[in-house]
Design goal:
Elements (H helix, E strand, L loop, with lengths): L1 H5 L4 E5 L5 H10 L3 E5 L3 H8 L10 H10 L3 E4 L10 E4 L14 H13 L5 E4 L7 H13 L8 E4 L9 H7 L2 E5 L2 H11 L7 E4 L1 H32 L3 H8 L22 H7 L7 H26 L8 E5 L14 H9 L5 E5 L10 H5 L4 E4 L11 H7 L4 E4 L12 E4 L6
Parallel strand pairs: 1-2, 1-4, 2-3, 4-5, 5-6, 7-8, 9-10, 9-11, 11-12, 12-13
Antiparallel strand pairs: 6-7
The structure holds nicotinamide-adenine-dinucleotide and the ligand CC(=O)N[C@@H]1[C@@H](OP(=O)(O)OP(=O)(O)OC[C@H]2O[C@@H](n3ccc(=O)[nH]c3=O)[C@H](O)[C@@H]2O)O[C@H](CO)[C@@H](O)[C@@H]1O.
Nicotinamide-adenine-dinucleotide (NAD) binds next to helix 5.
């Protein structure tokens, strides 16, 4: 297999063509491999084969078209098309259930599809983020379904994906990678495979360690954001601007405080800390507390909005509120677990009308002007670049009352004539 990989002479199937699977499939195809992308959503398959990506990511359409035109990438919904491949890379979603326990249904279904399609000697790679011990459990599942032995008859690896949406094609190449092989040989082969385009370092370990590493990274970020959010809460009580304080604190050589805001969304940070805890019998409570803080941040934005209503004696039930941004982060179309929705749900029964505008998300008002006309308050929930360049004075002229709540530190200097409040902006 070693030489065959180096010569691009192995057939790859990528299972799940979403934010991670599609760029991964494109990357391998444009590195010279024959790649079949298997995806259960038929409308996505159709769109991809016609050369259009269903997600927003810099350069994706150009790179997808290159892969489709060269004949190296083809998408399919037919499991027959992924029979007897050499490498299977699983990139399906691993969300939470309502009760915040991991929902591994997509993963298990993908593993079963792979078990039915693979042959002796195949390599199965899980790129999805999973609770500790899952890869070993999935290897046992494949053994039961195929009668093959993991590490002897097939290779198995957990290769967590660490790319940042918005920079995926750069980070796929330059990030360092962790490869958790069920055996040393599995990790060694996966290293040869990823080395075909990865320029970052590659570290090899066991699958449970690599599962932990991935979850620790996102939990570290989530807990740090919670700390920044707690600082923001204190800043309101002490009457200071937390962003100035953070900038000053970050001049210390060993301090790097994160950015407070209306909440933490996306497919990863809101669930990965729960995945980390899900297989443990006990924990100290810090990670859960951080999650609670971040989950409650939309309510802090609600408090600021309602304080502003009070300042102008506007009964909330008469107020029209325009939310700018539905995506979970700037310049993205991804609305998964977006705090904007939590915020909207928290206010919609108390106010007259809630409108939204997001240039990346369909189903919102067509134009910003239309969304803002005769409204009483604007709440910024996403840091899209274009929101940083708005002419607030002109927009203000369209409004009935001029309340501006900044949930994402988009506004540096409060615009004239507005009642301005921002998360962590306690100086007003
Ligand atoms: N989105 C990110 O920024 C990011 C970054 C790093 C890691 N991850 C992890 O990568 C994994 C995938 O995340 P994503 O954001 O790409 O999810 P996604 O929802 O965008 O993509 C998953 C795709 O898999 C498809 N799918 C589901 N079950 C399937 C099956 N049985 N067979 C074939 N296709 C199936 C879905 O239809 C979907 O298109 C998750 O575990 C996530 O935690 C995501
Ligand atoms: C460890 C790490 O870096 N992991 C990254 C992360 O990427 P992401 O796409 O989830 O993006 P983030 O930037 O983490 O934002 C998430 C939410 O937190 C808000 N936020 C952010 C920073 C801050 O200081 N204050 C905030 O409030 C922001 O607005 C948004 O709602 O997970 C991916 C999947 O596993 C990883 O692959 C990727 O490397």
């Amino acid at each position: 297999m070693r030489e065959r990989i180096q010569n691009r002479n192995v057939e790859i199937a990528v299972i799940g063509l979403g934010y991670i699977g599609l760029p991964t499939a494109i990357m391998f195809a444009n590195s010279g491999f024959n790649v079949t992308g298997y995806e259960i959503r038929e409308e996505v398959v159709k769109k991809l084969n016609s050369g259009t990506a269903h997600i927003v990511e810099p350069e994706i359409n150009k790179l997808l078209q290159e892969a489709i035109k060269s004949g190296k990438l083809r998408a399919t919904s037919n499991p027959e098309d992924i029979k007897n491949k050499d490498v299977y890379i699983i990139c399906v979603q691993t969300p939470l259930r309502e009760d915040k326990t991991p929902n591994l249904e997509y993963l298990e279904s993908a593993v079963k599809t792979v078990a039915r399609a693979m042959k002796k000697g195949s390599m199965v790679i899980i790129e999805s983020t999973v609770p500790p011990l899952t890869t070993v459990r999935m290897a046992r599942l494949i053994e039961t379904l195929t009668g093959l032995k993991a590490g002897e008859d097939f290779y198995m690896v957990h290769a967590p994906e660490r790319v940042m949406p918005g920079r995926i094609f750069k980070e796929l190449v330059y990030n360092s990678r962790i490869l958790g092989g069920i055996t040393r040989e599995s990790a060694d082969l996966a290293e040869i495979l990823y080395r075909t385009f990865v320029k970052g370092q590659i570290f090899k370990t066991d699958p449970t360690t690599s599962e932990m590493v991935k979850l620790m990274e996102n939990t570290f970020r989530d807990v740090n954001i919670a700390l920044a959010n707690e600082f923001a809460f204190l800043a309101h009580q002490y009457g200071i601007n937390i962003f100035e304080a953070i900038e000053l604190a970050n001049t210390h050589p060993r301090v790097k405080i994160h950015i407070p805001g209306i909440g933490v969304g996306g497919h990863c940070l809101p669930k990965d800390p729960y995945l980390l805890l899900s297989s443990a019998k006990e924990d100290f409570g810090l990670i859960k507390k951080a999650r609670e803080i971040n989950e409650d941040m939309p309510l802090m934005a609600k408090d600021l909005l309602f304080e502003a209503f009070k300042m102008i004696n506007l009964p909330p039930e008469e107020a029209v509120v325009t939310v700018l941004g539905l995506a979970y982060k700037g310049n993205s179309d991804d609305t998964r677990n977006s705090p904007a929705y939590v915020f909207i749900e928290a206010i919609q029964d108390d106010v007259k009308e809630v409108r939204s505008y997001d240039p990346y998300v369909s189903g919102t008002h067509e134009t910003l002007e239309e969304a803002v006309k005769d409204s009483d308050a604007i709440v910024i929930a996403t840091d899209h670049s274009q929101f940083k360049k708005l002419n607030w004075e002109e927009l203000g002229k369209l409004m009935r009352n001029k309340i501006l709540i900044d949930g994402r530190h988009v506004i540096d200097k409060p615009p004239k004539g507005f009642i301005f409040k921002g998360i962590g902006r306690g100086e007003y």
